[in-house]
Amino acid sequence: MLPYGRQSITEDDVQAVAEVLRGDWLTTGPTVTRFEEAIGALAGGHRAVSCTSGTAALHMAYAGAGVGAGDEVVTTPMTFVATASGASILGAKVVFADTEEDTGLIDPAAVDALVTERTRVVAAVDYTGHPADYAALQPIADRVGALTLADAAHSIGGSAGGRPVGDLADITTFSFFPTKNMTTTEGGAVVAKSDAIAQRAHEFHFIGMVRDADRFKNPDQGAWWYEVHEAGLNYRLTDVACALGLSQLARLEAFKQRRAEIWARYNAALADVDGVRIPVQRDAVDPVWHFYCARILDGRRREVFDKMRERGIGVQVNYIPVYWHPVYADAGYQRGMCPNAEAFYAEELSLPLFPDLTDAEVDRVIETLIDVLG
């Protein structure tokens, strides 16, 4: 089965990990610090806090933003459930805004109609690696005193308006899962423009531990002393994982280029094929394409999905509208509330896209899809 996504691991990656395994630090140590500094530099010079997954990063980001009971978080349903559940776990009400009809990205006009004085965060998702319209979202959030959050699980290394992903929103989260643009095996990171938010996210992912003596409520206890002022979790990433991450970062630009070549090859081949609609790219946006989102028309998506998989092409569907999941449906969220997102979901089919995919394999996907549609 040709997968829809796959990691790219070289001997340099293996050697980087092996060097850490032979050293003194395995868990949170100097390699974590170097990795966080590198991610922060890539993301506009802001502080980065690494963690165990993209899901953990979202949980940390909401905690760092102070999200809690009585707050609302406005987000998109076209995402993995963690974009919403991180806020729900902290007690916030999640409000789903519809998407743009063509991109699948959260629609600023829909957000504008939903924000209230209770809105704490407006969370967009850089779906498929295409940055959302933060230039439109930021003033909407600012008007009600909310923060913007970019779920950039798909888009590290991209930019919009000449600004890198990580500098487009108040808070940005990354995922380093194997199928993402780069990997630490499992892993993620939070980047925040506010030092205070970054510090809260750091302490939350470090079991709530405070080591700043100036903040101790019981000072002069000894050099071993630390305090926990608010409960947190152990979401710390390891030196082993960050060694791989640093090695992968050195190849991120090459990954981006190859992903763009594959995306363009699909677009050129499928542009005039009946029964399929190709994805779009906004002006002034430089994406890192995470997957290729084809739209299968005429109600044939399930049929095409099944036939492609029968022929060894590991297509995928990204994503089920979040409020369709029983955890939200049982809480009263109704189907039909975001018609553009639901129509998008009904047609979406992710084609294989990863850096080690060859041109011959891309052509195999194209030929199989055209044959199936015929």
From TrEMBL:
PANTHER family xrefs: DTDP-4-AMINO-4,6-DIDEOXYGALACTOSE TRANSAMINASE, TRANSAMINASE
InterPro entries according to UniProt: DegT/StrS_aminotransferase (IPR000653), PyrdxlP-dep_Trfase (IPR015424), PyrdxlP-dep_Trfase_major (IPR015421), PyrdxlP-dep_Trfase_small (IPR015422)
UniProt KW keywords: Pyridoxal phosphate
TM helices/strands, residue ranges: none
Protein name, as recorded: UDP-4-amino-4, 6-dideoxy-N-acetyl-beta-L-altrosamine transaminase
Keyword Cell division: no
CC cofactor: pyridoxal 5'-phosphate
Family: Belongs to the DegT/DnrJ/EryC1 family.
Pfam families according to UniProt: DegT_DnrJ_EryC1 (PF01041)
